[in-house]
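tokens incoming
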């Protein structure tokens, strides 16, 4: 029955078979300097080039035998039933904070007017400007006060970082509660996909986390090191409480995972997730940003009696601790920028430590991080290099832009 499974991720490096991407859309052109901070961008990517770069990424994956699925297609295909579509629209409009019956009605009508669901999904992701709504009148006090604000529905420019709103862990899904309001609506697409898409609706998918939980966790912090070990960042985006909850659920369901390593990394914009400073590239090789090595504390969470967990603070150095938990003689930590403070700072900012493994020792990387890329090659890692001028302006690299649904077991 194993080949019938649609979700199977028991490592970071097993041969990648199916992955979920989002091709950047017009939401990126709805960024303005005033919105950048709240919408988590540091600059405005040039959409045409960003799309070319993204297509180059998808081509590398397809050429290497990976089935590439798009979030926007799966979301549209999940809404065939009109009652489901209605529910989805109502939820989306509420979460987009469209207030007042009249405004809700106008927005719903605008979205329902699209001839096909795929175009409607594109519009939802892109955001709706006030200027696009026929006869838009400021009726509420809030509307009048915010009359210069250009959107009725905010754009969702972070959607091309498909790694974050949910994660495949083993045969289950962690449907994440995103830290920031701007990214919270992203998980709504996944909620409907896993419930209603023909690919998933008839299988029982264990849910390790739910978007309605009060504490935050994001996919960039969730790494599957092997079939027994996860690493999860306690970070700017993920709370320690969320990791405890997720651990208890995973241990209770009888999955193969036995240890969850919680990596406490500094709270800093540049290191918003664990995968911005640490990724796995081979059985015994990892990239790491040298700036986190000093302050890093690792806790090992293990299954205890009944519904309890045991937590121990790790006292070994990171390489020794990893070797211990992964049952290896030795692991190599490949330092971003070669450990030079300037090269490391610059290349980590542009996701030099954020590699996507497509099989053991074979990774996709951004072209601009030439110092780190050379080091990876010197350490025997095979590189697939993608262009990276525009996509990198959103502060995420190849791992952040891809959500594996299926990896071959090691
Ligand atoms: N896993 C990742 O590190 N994803 C990158 C997310 C970048 C996005 N602009 C954000 O701040 O959430």
């Amino acid at each position: 029955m194993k080949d019938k499974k649609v979700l199977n991720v028991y490592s970071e490096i097993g041969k990648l078979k199916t992955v979920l991407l989002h091709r950047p859309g017009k939401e990126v052109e709805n960024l303005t300097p005033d919105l950048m901070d709240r919408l988590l961008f540091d600059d405005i990517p040039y959409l045409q080039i960003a799309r070319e770069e993204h297509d180059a990424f998808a081509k590398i994956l397809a050429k290497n035998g990976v089935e590439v699925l798009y979030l926007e297609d799966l979301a549209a295909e999940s809404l065939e039933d009109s009652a489901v579509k209605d529910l989805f629209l109502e939820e989306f409009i509420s979460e987009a904070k469209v207030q007042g019956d009249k405004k809700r009605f106008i927005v719903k009508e605008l979205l329902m007017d699209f001839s096909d669901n795929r175009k409607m999904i594109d519009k939802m992701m892109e955001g709706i400007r006030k200027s696009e709504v026929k006869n838009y009148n400021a009726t509420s006090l809030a509307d009048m006060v915010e009359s210069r604000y250009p959107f009725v529905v905010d754009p969702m420019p972070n959607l091309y970082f498909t790694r974050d709103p949910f994660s495949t862990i083993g045969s289950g899904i962690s449907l994440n509660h995103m830290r920031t309001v701007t990214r919270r609506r992203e998980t709504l697409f996944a909620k409907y996909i896993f419930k209603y898409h023909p690919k998933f609706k008839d299988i029982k998918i264990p849910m390790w986390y739910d978007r309605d939980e009060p504490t935050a966790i994001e996919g960039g912090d969730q790494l599957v090191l092997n079939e027994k070990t996860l690493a999860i960042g306690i970070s700017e985006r993920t709370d320690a409480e969320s990791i405890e909850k997720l651990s208890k659920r995973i241990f209770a369901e009888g999955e193969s995972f036995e240890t969850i390593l919680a990596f406490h990394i500094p709270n800093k914009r540049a290191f918003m997730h664990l995968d911005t400073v640490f990724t796995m590239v081979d059985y015994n090789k990892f990239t790491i940003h040298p700036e986190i090595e000093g302050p890093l504390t690792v806790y090992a969470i293990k299954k205890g009696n009944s519904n309890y967990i045991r937590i121990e603070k790790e006292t070994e150095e990171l390489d020794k601790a990893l070797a211990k938990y992964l049952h290896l003689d030795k692991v190599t930590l490949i330092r971003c920028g070669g450990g030079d403070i300037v090269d490391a700072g610059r290349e980590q900012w542009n996701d030099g430590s954020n590699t996507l493994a497509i099989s053991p020792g074979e990774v996709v990387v951004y072209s601009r991080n030439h110092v780190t890329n050379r080091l990876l090659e010197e350490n025997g890692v095979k590189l697939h290099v993608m262009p990276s001028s525009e996509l990198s302006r959103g502060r995420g690299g190849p791992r952040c832009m891809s959500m594996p649904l299926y990896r071959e077991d090691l």
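note: Residues 158-407 form a domain with the L-arginine/glycine Amidinotransferase; Chain A fold (CATH 3.75.10.10).
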